[in-house]
Prior knowledge:
- The protein is α+β, with helices and mostly antiparallel strands.
- It has one domain (10-421).
- Helix content is 13%, strand content 24%.
- The protein has helices at residues 143-148, 172-175, 273-277, 283-288, 298-302, 305-313, 319-323, 329-337, 394-402, and strands spanning 18-25, 32-43, 59-65, 74-82, 109-117, 120-129, 152-154, 157-165, 205-214, 234-250, 255-268, 359-362.
- β10 (234-250) and β11 (255-268) form a beta hairpin.
- The two termini are 23 Å apart.
- This is DUF4331 domain-containing protein.
- Residues 439-458 are annotated as: Disordered.
- InterPro entries: DUF4331.
Amino acid sequence: MSSHREAPEISKDPVADSTDVYAFVSPADPSKVILIANFIPLQKPDGGPNFYEFGDDVLYEIHVSNTNKAEPNISYQFRFHTHVRNPASFLYNTGPISDITDATWNRPQKYSLTRVVNGEARQLASGLTSPPVNVGPRSTPNYAALAEQAVHTVGNHRVFAGQRADAFHVDLGSIFDLGALRPFNEAHVISMPNMGGVNAVQSYNVHTIALEVPAKALTRDGAAPSDVLDRRSTIGVWATASRKKGSVFDAQQGKFVGRGPWVQVSRLGNPLFNEVIVPMGRKDKWNSLPPNADDKFAKYVDHPELAGLLPALYPGVFPNLAAYDKSRADLDAILLTGIPSGVVPGFTNYTGPVKADMLRLNMAIPPSDNPNSLGLVAGDAAGFPNGRRIIDDVVTIELRAVAGLTIPLVDPSYTPDGAASAVEDGTSDTNADLLDDFPFLGLPGGGYQTQPGTTQAS
Length: 458
C-alpha cells in the first residue's frame, strides 16, 4: 500500500501509522494549497464499540521545506484530547448525534493546531472539534452535515481532522502473492487467467488531517508563487507521527503514559517509498529518520529490487529492463531531488542536491482543466510526481516508472519495453465520491451501511 502497515514495528502501532500524504494546488481556489496526511489504516466502518480515533499520546505533524536543505522550515502540529462524558457506559453514543457538540456523543475528541516556523512555535487554535466516526443512520444521521461542522477556519487557514473514506487503491492480495498483477496473470512465471484488479482498500476508512493554506504562507519569502521555473515556487512536503521516548503503564489511569522527549516513529513523503523501495531490514530505521538523511537509502532507489524482479516474474516481457545495468537517475530525480529544469519542457520541481524523500509541489503550476490520473507521465503537470492529488493513480505511475518508462528522460539511448507503458494493477477508487472543495476526501463508510466482504481459502 502507499504506506499502510509498511514496516514491521509501525504495523503494531496503527494509531501512529501514516498511510498517505497529498499536496496539491486547490482546484477550488488556486491561491491555496491543500496538505493532507492520513493515519490509522484499514478501518472497518463497523469497528465498534471502540471506534477508531486519533491518539492522545501521538504528535501528528505535516512538514514543509522551502529551502534546498530538506529541513522542516514550516511544521503544523496536531495534538488531540479525548473526553469520556459517561465512563459508566460502554456506548460510543447514547443517542443520535446531530451536532458535534451533542452530549449524546460519549467520547468527543478535540485538538490544537500549532504552526512552527524555523523553530518558533505559535499555537493557532485549541479546542477544535473532530467529528465522530460514521456509526450509522440512527447514531450519526446526515453525516455530511455533521462532518461539515468540523471544518474550521483558523485565520487564513482551514483545517479538518476526522474520519474519511480511504481514496488509495491497490490490489494487495495479488501484488504480495509473488508480485502478480491480475491483468497480466497469464504472463506471470506462475501463470493464471487474466482478470481485473481487486481493490484491497475498498470499503475501509482512514483518519485525515487536512489543511488549506495560502500558497504565499508556504514560500520562504512570503511571495505568491507565479514563475514555474523559480526555485522558490517549489516546496517539499512530508508527514510524521511521534511518541514519547518512554511509556509506563499507569494503574490508576488504566493506560500507558508517555515520558521523555518526542521520538519519530512514522514518516511518509512519496507514496510506496518505504513500502517498495526500502528493504525489510531497514524499514523501521527509515521511519525514525528525517528526509535529509535519505542519502543512506539512495542505493535502493538507484537499483530498486522491483526492477530486477519484474523480468524474473514476467519472463520475456521486460528484456530491455533486464539488460539495463545503469544507476536509475530517473527514479533518483522523481523521488529524491525533484526533476531539474530542462528534463520536462517548461517544468521543474527540483529542490536541490540533498537527497530526500518528500512530495515536491511546484505551486506555480495551476490545477488542470482536464486532470489525468497518470499525472506528469501523461502530460498533466499538476499531478504526481508534482505533489500528489487524490485522483492520481500512484501505483500505476510508479509501476511504469520502475518498469523503465521514465528512463529516456535522463538516458535517451534507452528504449522502454512495450509493457512498461501498459503495466498496472487494474484497480480504481470506488469508495465514496470525492468532494469538489475542502477537505476533498469522500465521506467515510458507515458501520450500519457497510456490507462485509467474502473470503475464500482456495
